[in-house]
Amino acid sequence: MEITPKSKIQDILNHFPQLEEEIIRSAPPFENLRNPVLRRTVARLATLEQAARIGGMNPLDLVNRLRRAVGQTEISKPIEMPTATDIPLAGEEDPAWVRGDAQFVVDGNRLLEAGEVPLNHIQSLLGQLEEGRFILLITDFEPRPMIEALQKQNRKVYHKLDEQNTNRHLTYIC
C-alpha cells in the first residue's frame, strides 16, 4: 500500500500497524486511536491530510514522515489546496440565504497551514457580517466540529460538496 495524503488512517494502520504511535505523536487529537470503538469510526473516515491539519502540521510533512518510516520514497510535489476561485453559485436546491455573493470567503486550509484556528477567524468575521450576507468557508474536508459549534451559537450553517470539485467543501455561515 502506498501512503498518500488521501490514505485513510484505518487502511494505513491495517497495512502498517507500527505507524500508530507516529500518527499519534504527529496529531495528538488522534490519541483516540487507542480506543477500539473510536478507532473503528475515526480511523475509518479520516485521511492523513485531515489528521495533519488537526495536528497543525503540513500534510505533506506527515505523509513523508510515515513514508520514510516504512521505506517508501518521499513525495515532492505540493498537495493541491482548494481555492476560492470558480466557486459555483448556489442553486435552487440550496437555501435562499446562501444565494448571491459571500461577504467573506475564507480558505480554511490556508488558515490551518498558518497555524490559525478557522473557528476563531470565522468568529471575528461574524462581528463584521452585514445583514443578509454570509461567510463562505472553503476546505478540503467537512469541518464538522466547527459546524456544530456555530449551530450551538444559533448561527445558520449550510454545508455541501462543490459539484465541480468534489474535493472541495463549501460551508456557508451567517
Mean pLDDT: 84
Q: Helical element count? A: 8
CATH architecture of the largest domain: 2-Layer Sandwich
N-to-C series of helices and strands: HHHHHEHHEHEE
Low-confidence stretches: 78-84
Which percent range describes the beta-strand content? 5-15%
Structural class: alpha+beta
Total strands: 4
Largest sheet: 4 strands, mixed
CATH topology of the largest domain: Translation Initiation Factor IF3
Helix content: 25-40%
Shape: elongated
Radius of gyration, in angstroms, nearest whole number: 17 Å
Can you walk me through this structure?
It is a single chain. This protein has 174 residues and is of the alpha+beta class. The protein folds into 2 domains: 9-69, no CATH class; 96-173, Translation Initiation Factor IF3, CATH 3.30.110. 38% of the residues lie in helices and 14% in strands. It is built from 8 helices and 4 strands. The protein has helices spanning 9-15, 20-26, 36-45, 48-54, 59-69, 108-113, 118-126, 144-152; strands at residues 104-107, 135-139, 157-162, 165-173. It has a 4-stranded mixed beta sheet with strand order 1-2-4-3. A hairpin with a 2-residue loop joins strand 3 and strand 4. Helix 4 (48-54) crosses helix 5 (59-69). The longest helix has 11 residues, at 59-69. The protein is elongated. Residues 78-84 have low confidence and may be disordered.
